[in-house]
Structure formats: structure tokens, C-alpha cells
Amino acid sequence: MKILLLALFLSLGVLPAFAQVESDGPKIKDDSLSVETYVKGIPNNPTTMTFVGDDILVLQRYDGQVRLVRDGVLQDRLVLDVSVAKDGERGMLGITSIGSTVYVYFTAADADGGKAIENRIYKYEWDGNSLVNPVLLKTLPSDNFYHNGGAMTNFDGQVYAIMGDNGNYGRLQNRATDWKNDTSVILRIDPPGQYYAMGVRNSFGITFDPNTGNLWDTENGDDEYDEINLVPENFNSGWIEIMGPAKNQEQIDSLPKYGNFVYSDPEFSWQRPVAPTAISFVKSDKLKDYSDSVFVGDCNTGNLYRFKLDSDRTGFVFESPELADKVLNIGESADEILFGTDFGCVTDIEVGPDGLLYIVSLSEEKIYRIIPKVVAEQSNQKPDAGGGCLIATAAYGTELSTQVQMLRELRDSVLFNTESGTTFMAGFNQFYYSFSPTVADWERQSPVFKEFVRIAISPMLSTMSILNYANIDSEQEMLGYGIGVVLLNSAMYFVMPILAIVKIRQHFSKKSN
């Protein structure tokens, strides 16, 4: 019921009081970490996001648009624009990606803000500027403006999406009556397959544990009991008969049988609903203290929760006796699991390629980033470090390529370790970023030009890699190696071509004589 009221507020363009409370920004309990606003001013209710290389694609729920965030800046140009319904819980709902393949889940409409047709899941290709070559993979019902789900994830090449009950109460909702396909389920989308789970009331969070491959979700309850579930294959979440832990075995046994789906209790429940949304695991050297944790955000209170996993990573461990029953009952303290506050209505949590935690806030229209203070301080000591190697990234198609990572390693681990290297980078970046965005755009638009750039920069990359193997401990060594590499590149790109031209001219001059 609480999330339904939220949807009604949103459909009227009004945010409830919990999202309007003025604060000094998010706060977290760990003094070694800080929260920074990575992107602000994302209009029309940002919902979920995905990383493609170092870029972020973020959905704007109410206008059917996908926007690009590059180097922490929301770009003006649109990545995708489709017609969506925007009443209740409809709109742009979910996004995930595998490499340059991007999957988008939205409620299609006959016009922007018009009458809903159905929910659709498309597959696109990311060309560095736009989502192109759409392929319709799945249509889903949208008979009601609520419980459309939409959260998506992928693991080991399989894409999954979650769909709420959409107001249906049949076999997939544990009622022995007629039923409607593709409601209250976790679906295998690409490649397509049988239902992974059933009995889901509604969900805004689904993810995999990168260590075990186990699927987890969050589930919104009605007037009581929101849930966090470990979701094995053929899982029955219990709705409409059970929310929160089952009262007894008799209640479980009374569930109508549907195939070989099996019920189990949630790993955690809130008796008073908080509207849990995003869920994410952290596998990162920069946040290694939280490798045994799962993070969950909510929409009703703006809280960020941290749950400590047990040794098998199939449940949670608690120090508080009040939480031993895996339920936060009304009147009990949430201090043990409360990690952060004042995030507004959290709608997504993702770990970026930089190993940092990114949090989308629908109500604040921002993406926050949680970063170790020591990393933030180091970044502040590196003036104008720049957001990325734009020309090389465009040439090789991804920030994760060996060539781009080599350049980053050279910059961060070699140049920034000396004063002369840091000074050089400050001046170089002013020059480089005056033209590199334009060159990168040309590369994305022209495969021929892109290939030319790859050929042209290959000799330079080979010579610069020498610095990653050099033992540079002083300013003199930095200057010596640096001058040597500059002279080597000058010889390859200028001296040798000039000598070749002179030789060719001499050859033709002799023939003419």
C-alpha cells in the first residue's frame, strides 16, 4: 500500500514529505568514506543506470529518455527517446548492459505521456553516442498503472527482468484460479527461458552475488512486510498468501502447487514497510572492507542499509538480539543495519568500473558516489587529472581495453608520483581536452577514421609502455625517461618521415637527371 501511495504522488508530479525534507545531503556512518554528488540535475525522475565502459546511461522515467553521463557530466544530447506512459509506476523502468549490448525495459505508450500499450524490453547496441539497432525481445502486460516491476540484471551472459503482479491474482500469485502469464515473476530475457521465480508482489531491486552467482531481490509488501530474498531457481516468494516470514508450516503447505516452485522465508523483512529498492554487492579493492556485505536502498525514508553476510553468503548475521529473527519489528532499532541516511528516494545502486559505489536518487535528481576519503584526497592532489583517455577509448571501443588501461596506469602510477610528472599532466590536459572530444566523436562516426587513429597511435603506445616498466624514484629519472620517450616518438613521427621524404625526392631527382 505504501508504494502504491508513492506511485500516486509521483503520477501527480508531487513527492511525499520524505523526499522533500531539507538536509545537508547524505550522511554515512563510516568515517573513512565520504559521499559526493557525482551528477546533479537529472530531470524527470531518474530511475536506473548502467555502465558502458566508464560512461553511464541513466533512464529518465517520465519523458522516455536515456541520457549519457560522461566524466561526471550529464550530456545534452539524447541517447534514446521513446514514447512512454507516465502514470503511477509506469515509464522508463529498467536498464542493464553486457559490453556494448544494452537492454531497456519501459512502458510503451501511443504518445509521450499517452495511453499505455504494454511493457516492452528491447535490446540495443551502444555505438558510443546512441542506442541503435533496436530488437524487441519481450512484451509484458501493463493492465494497471501499478506493480510493473522493471528492475533488470545479468550474470554469466544471461539477462533477467522482474515483473510485479500488475493487479493480477491467479496461479502465479499462489491462488488456485485463472492466471495471467508473465506477472509476479522473474524472467529469463536473453536468451529466453522458463520462469526463474514466481509469487513476487512487486520489486525494484534484483542482482547477483559476484562471488557465488546467487540471485537476490528486494520485494515491496502491502501494509506489512517488505523483504530481501535469496532467490534460487524455481523460487516461490509466497505472494499473495505470504509476505514476510510464514506463520507456520501449515501456511506454507497450503500454497497451491505451481510446477516445481518452492517457497522459503525471506532473509530479512521490515514489518513496517520502507519500500526497499536497489540491492548491490561490492567486489572492489577500494571498498574491500565491505566484500562481505550487501547494500540496499529504500524510497520511503532515504536510508542506505548494509547487511553483513554469513560465511556461506546465503543469509545475514546480526549482533542485535532484536534482529535474530531476521525481522525489524515495529519499535525495534535499525542502528545495526543503517549505513547511510538522507539519500532521498533511492532507485539504483551500482558498482562502477572504478570500484566505487554509485547511488541514483529519484527525488534528488542526482547520482551520488561513495568514495574512500584517502582516494578523494589523492584525487584532489592531482590537478586536472582529466576524466579519461578519450581518443584511445574511442579507438579501441572501451575504457577496459589493454591499451587504455596501460595509459591510465602510466598516468596514475608513474607520472603522478613525481612533481614534474604532475606539473606536466596539468599543462598537457588543458591542451589535450581542447580537441580530444571532437576527435573521439569523429572516430565514433567513421570506422575508417577510427582505424586510421588506431594505426597512428600504436607506435606511441609501444614507446610509452616503457615507462610502466621503468624504476622511476626521482625527479631526475622522471625527466630523463620522459625526454627519452619524447625524443623516440619525435624520431618515429617526424624525423623518420622527413628522412623518407628526402630519400624519395633524391631518388626521383636522380632519375630525372
Outline the structure in words:
- The protein is of the alpha+beta class.
- The chain folds into two domains: 2-375, Neuraminidase, CATH 2.120.10; 382-512, no CATH class.
- Helices cover 25% and strands 30% of the residues.
- The protein contains ten helices and 28 strands.
- The protein has helices at residues 2-11, 249-253, 373-380, 390-396, 402-414, 419-432, 436-445, 447-464, 466-469, 475-512, and strands spanning 27-28, 33-40, 46-52, 55-60, 65-70, 73-81, 92-98, 101-109, 116-126, 131-140, 152-155, 158-163, 185-190, 197-198, 205-208, 215-219, 226-231, 235-236, 262-263, 268-270, 276-281, 293-298, 304-308, 327-328, 338-341, 346-351, 357-361, 366-372.
- The strands form seven sheets. It has a five-stranded antiparallel sheet, with no helix packed on it.
- The longest helix has 38 residues, at 475-512.
Describe how the helices and strands are arranged.
Blueprint: H1 2-11, E1 27-28, E2 33-40, E3 46-52, E4 55-60, E5 65-70, E6 73-81, E7 92-98, E8 101-109, E9 116-126, E10 131-140, E11 152-155, E12 158-163, E13 185-190, E14 197-198, E15 205-208, E16 215-219, E17 226-231, E18 235-236, H2 249-253, E19 262-263, E20 268-270, E21 276-281, E22 293-298, E23 304-308, E24 327-328, E25 338-341, E26 346-351, E27 357-361, E28 366-372, H3 373-380, H4 390-396, H5 402-414, H6 419-432, H7 436-445, H8 447-464, H9 466-469, H10 475-512
Parallel strand pairs: 14-18, 18-19, 20-24
Antiparallel strand pairs: 1-25, 2-28, 3-4, 4-5, 5-6, 7-8, 8-9, 9-10, 11-12, 12-13, 15-16, 16-17, 17-20, 21-22, 22-23, 23-25, 26-27, 27-28
Helix pairs in contact: 4-7, 4-8, 7-8, 8-10
